[in-house]
Amino acid sequence: MITVKGISNQDFNGKKCLLRLDLNIPISENGQILDDTRIRESKPSIDYLLEQNTKVIIVSHMGRPKGKYSSELSFENLLSDFEKILKRKIVLVPFSDQEDALKIINSLDFGTLFLLDNIRFNKGEESSDSEFIKFLSSLADVFINDGFGTIHRNHSSITGVANLLPSFGGILLEKEIEKISQCIQEKAQNSTAILGGAKIQDKIPIIENLSKTFNKIIITGGMIRPFLMASEKIPNSKKINNDEINIAKKILIENEKIFVPDQLICSESIDGEPVLLNASQIKESDNIFDIGPNSLASITNMILSSDKIIWNGPPGVYEKSNFQNGTKKIIDSIVESNASYKVAGGGSTVAAINFFSATEFFTHISTGGGAFLSLLEGKFLQGIEVLKE
Q: Class of 186-377 per CATH?
């Protein structure tokens, strides 16, 4: 089990704490926060630190400003929303002038919550520039990382500062690592992993790693077609390159745990009429947008008999009423199952769970996308390594 140095039972009284969060959240075209989960999940660490009479300096990024200031990507636009969600006054600290940033932080009392503006406005963040790391380290006495969604990156505010300051994992980070690791490593008689996504290459290491501890791996989404081609259930298509088909063949040969749905809901376009087809009936012009009832019945039975479940990737275009049944059935089955672990992660997966109002029925829903997938791979994560006990 992976463990990091946590903040519980630590004395931070009178300390300046640099707190790395993941505030790279979805924003609508008119500037409204579409999902505030990451902010709400960060509140316990913020409260814990401020209750100890500290100064908390939040650092985070949003978007890809490529080392330049962008008014659209400034946290100034979201400051009042952050304050409402966290129920605390926040002092925004611009850092175009680093001396001014230090003056602002040093001039205010302990118990103040600061937010450094979008850290990617400085090109030294992504390049792990030594001078920028020194500047960030000069702001605080200790470093706490509670931004699970960024833990797989080797950036200044993730690994760089952790090498210069006494460093800890925040409450959210500890929970993420614990729940996901438990679900992967815990032995179970009947376990199911549900994997979607478009690119098989991205899922090879995940399939290989999860095969060690999961009995069944269900393939959904954009990966269905190349797997059906690999098993010669449908003819090859110009839509899928030969490399993907060959990878799928290799996975099927080496892994008997793979289940690929072969009754599907198809259409020539996303706005077209849905057609129920068995694999042998699928033509080049047919796009696969969801899973058919017979295959769904098999998947439902697997899920209901499982004692642990991990899910990444909706099986269909759930936003469209014609193609949402597969996603809804999978969620309903997970909710109904008696599994000890029901873990889900990835942006579109979490959005689907929210869409069907099922959040409370999962053991854990991860706030990370790439970081979640990296843990499923069993990957070496530098942001975790620097915090290990």
A: alpha beta
Q: At what angle do helices 79-86 and 37-50 cross, to 10 degrees?
A: 70
* Cα 260-323-355 angle, rounded to 5 deg: 105
Number of Cβ atoms within 10 Å of the Cβ of 31: 10
State which amino acid sits at residue 86: L
Distance CA 319, CA 337 (A): 24
CB under 8 Å, gap of 24 or more: what pairs does 295-299 form?
A: 295/261, 295/262, 295/263, 295/264, 296/261, 296/325, 296/326, 296/329, 296/330, 298/259, 298/261, 299/194, 299/218, 299/259, 299/261, 299/329, 299/330, 299/333
The residue with greater pLDDT, 96 or 208, is 208
This prediction has a pTM of 0.89
Residue scoring higher pLDDT (98 or 261):
261
| Cα separation, 27 vs 367, whole angstroms | 16
Residue with tokens 């892994």: 255
The structural domains of the chain, with segments of one domain joined by +, span 16-173, 186-377
Domains 16-173 and 186-377 in one fold: yes
How is residue 295 written in tokens? 């295959």
Which residues contact residue 102 at a Cβ distance below 8 angstroms, ignoring those fewer than 6 apart? 138, 139
Percent of the chain with pLDDT over 90: 72
Give the span between the Cα atoms of 371 and 153, in whole angstroms.
Answer: 9
| Stretch (H or E) spanning 191 | strand 191-195
The whole-angstrom separation of Cα 233 and Cα 245 is 12
How high is the pLDDT of residue 44?
A: 97
Query: What pLDDT, in 10s, does the model give residues 61-93?
Result: 999 999 999 999 999 999 999 999 999 999 999
The fold of 16-173 is Rossmann fold (3.40.50)
